[in-house]
Amino acid sequence: MNKKGLAILMRTRMRPTNDSAHLARSPLANMVNQTVNGSQSSSGTQKLNASSNTKRDLEVVSESMHSAISMSKTEVLDSVLSDFSEGYFSLCYENRRKLLVQLAKEYDLNRTQVCDLIKQYLGLELPGTGSDNADSEEEASLSAFYRIERNLRHALKPMYEVLFERLNTHPGGLKFLSILRADILSILAEDNLASLRALDSYLKEKLSTWLSPAALELHQITWDDPASLLEKIVAYEAVHPISNLIDLKRRLGVGRRCFGYFHPAIPGEPLIFIEAALMKDLAQSVQEVLWDVPPIPECEATCALFYSISSTQPGLSGINLGKFLIKRVITLVRKDMPHISTFATLSPIPGYMQWLLSKLASQSKLAEGEDMPNTSADRSGSTFWENILEPEEERELTDAFGEFTTGKNSMEVMLNLLTSANHEWTKSDKLLSVLKPPLMRLCARYLLQEKKRGKALDFVANFHLQNGAMVERINWMADRSDKGLHQSGGIMVNYVYRLGNIEDYSQSYFSTGHIHTSNELSR
Known about the structure:
The chain is built from 24 helices and nine strands. It is α+β, with helices and mostly antiparallel strands.
């Protein structure tokens, strides 16, 4: 093993294949986990909290935050900002929460001033016309409008904007703001405070501006990059965990590409990165990409298949850096490899099984009333009941289920099969053949018809569709890992970016929610 491999191995704890290691990337969540882990005895918790609070008391950090907002002496501002960020990290979970709520409420905009300015504005008369002195009167009237509008723009800026702006120009400040927002999101998940929502919305808007594509640098990540960067790729890979150094080297080697977006203020750490495989054809399973098939000579490839995209900063959630990353990578690959003509994905369907199991559970309960006396009239009035299985699918399930499970109706049978321990249904060829037709058909329905606010219910589908992709193909048993089976019954989907249609497809999806599909799926 070379020195780089040894360094990565020693400095990076490889992520396990389950999702439990993914739960706490926010410093706030880490603090919560520390508290939970230390709560085996009440005295342990008290010692932890006491240790945290002795480092930097909440009042001291609060004063430091106030100084960072109100101070006008630029020569000592960097020192004050450093004190605030260091003090913030020393706070325990509850004190961080109190500080952020204080920031959201006490350093918000002055609504009394805003209301007074609005009253003044509404009291102005619009410029009149027709008199000899019309021009001079109009100019004087407009001057009053301009003055109040300028004052309104200033009054509508909350005081915490000063803190955000100053931190953004402070060394390490952009990273700190990302961590700050990650903590805000963690708190909002527990307590949906209106003041914190406003704080989050404002900070998100600022981060979106500061992280515009023009400010980001695209870099191809290779095995020659520093070990400190490669260990971050291992740690943050969110779709298909990297199992060992051989796996990492394969993903960065021949026939594979990895690109990341970097910001100068956060050196050595990608904000988001994407992995691609160069292939002859559109892959139907993740096994083809990760391990089953050795890479082909790059000159023979005609397809660039994106199989993983991962964000490293929880605090940038909701800021669509991936859209710009994919488009930049497509442009770069087309320039360097003109023989690549197809740009597609092999994507998970993370919400499918949750949706399907919920549907099967609710519909099987409603179906029980069908055979009960004197209930048909009541059930006929229900607009929620539907048999989501086709008659042929019902017969196949009823004939095949006997030795495996029990159920009062075909939907309950299917529900019991899919929730069996250790995914037992995947170990029977007979059950796989019976379950494939309904699972594939319902997956197409989930991707193409199930909507939330007019857009695809599945968040990965929504991401690619809003970026201008189309749904090309649904693949059976494409990911047999525990995660793949749990999320989507092993099914994955190919989204294709048609180079001449990306903008049109994106626009039609945004405006009408229309989802473009291949001819095969349109039938």
